[in-house]
Structures are given as C-alpha cells and as structure tokens.
Sequence to fold (238 residues):
Amino acid sequence: QSALTQPASVSGSPGQSITIPCTGTSSDIGTYTYVSWYQQLPGRAPKIIIYDVTKRPSGVSNRFSGSKSGNTASLTISGLQAEDEADYHCSSYTTITGVMFGGGTKLTVL
Amino acid sequence: QVQLVQSGAEVKKPGASLKVSCKASGYTFSDYYIHWVRQAPGQGLEWMGWINPDSGGTNYAQRFHGWVTMTRDTSINTVYMDLSSLKSDDTAVYYCARSGYGCSGGSCYHYYYGMDVWGHGTTVTVSS
Fold:
C-alpha cells in the first residue's frame, strides 16, 4: 500500500506562510478526522504538532495550523522562522492497515 | 516526567531476529497504546503496528504480518518489538511512541492514531 503523498520539499522566507499538502484516499483522509502532523529536526525523534486534523497539543505554537478538504490534509506554518526548518510528516488512520504516514517534506527557510 | 526509554543500538546479520524494548514511565502504562514506527536512512516514517498494553491486543501493518510480534510485560511497564528474518533493508531507526492524550475546548480525551510521546529511537544495522 502506498504512503500518503507529500511534496519532497518546500521553502519559504522568514515571515512568510507556507502550506504542506498531504493527499490520501477515501480509505483514510477522505473519511476520517484522524490526521496528525509531526515535526522532525535532524537526528531527533518526531514531535507531534497537530492531531485530529486541526488540534494543537499544549505548548505548540499557534503559528502551526491544520486543515482538511476532501482527500487532502494540509499543514500551514505562518510567520516562518529559521527554527521551523525541519522535516514534516503527516499521518492518518486508514481502514486498510491502521495508520499510514506520508513520505515526509523537507522545509527550507531561505 | 513522561518518557519512553528504548534499548540500545543493534548490529545484526541477515536472517537474524531483533528484539527492541521500550520502557514507559511517568504515566499509567495501561492507559495508552504503544506504536512502533521505523525510519530507514534518509527516508520517511513507516508505521509497523501497535499494542494495547492493557489487553495485550495488537494491530500490525499488513506488510509486517507474520514477521513482527509486539508483546508487553506489565510488571515492568515495558513493551517489546520482535522482528524476524532480517534483511539489509530493515536497517533503520526504530521508534516506540505513545498514543496521544489531548485537551480541546475544555474536554480532554485519548486519541489513538496519533503519537504524543516518542522514544529516542534504536538504531538497527543489518549487514553481513
């Protein structure tokens, strides 16, 4: 089974907003609200930044927001900062296998 | 504080088996699922499955059926992940991660398909 689809890389300048899409199917993102997003700094374990499509865990900056439309979920980072440079991974519940991740997106802050 | 401590790095030969442990502390062990996720070098995350420490029930990703086994020892708040018949492309960092608990709009609840606490990872190298 294929992973959720994310762009390999995105970039933006400090202060800008960027959006990372995550495309699935009707077996996962299209039907369920169990989408999470993770930030992974180099050499570190992932850290959850969004769960259940739109919710932010305590302590996560409100510059991070999540949304969903049809089979595509999106992570938006506003007011981009140098410290946001990292890999971002989406995941979703799927009826086929339980949980599925996207391939990951490398964010570069120019 | 809440943490998951994993066993140390492993070097294995092709065909061997692997056992990685994940010891939980700082919370009620039986209240949260433990997921296992791996990441091959330079690659994305791959979900392997989860175990319910309360019941011992498991749910494995399709591609790992018959190949992975997840167990737990409630007396020491530890879960284990066994992977058999290792190949070179099983070289990866293996993470355990706890299912989540969050609060929104004044209500708090468990969310089982996201992971809010992660172990530090166990590096596994499979090479002849």
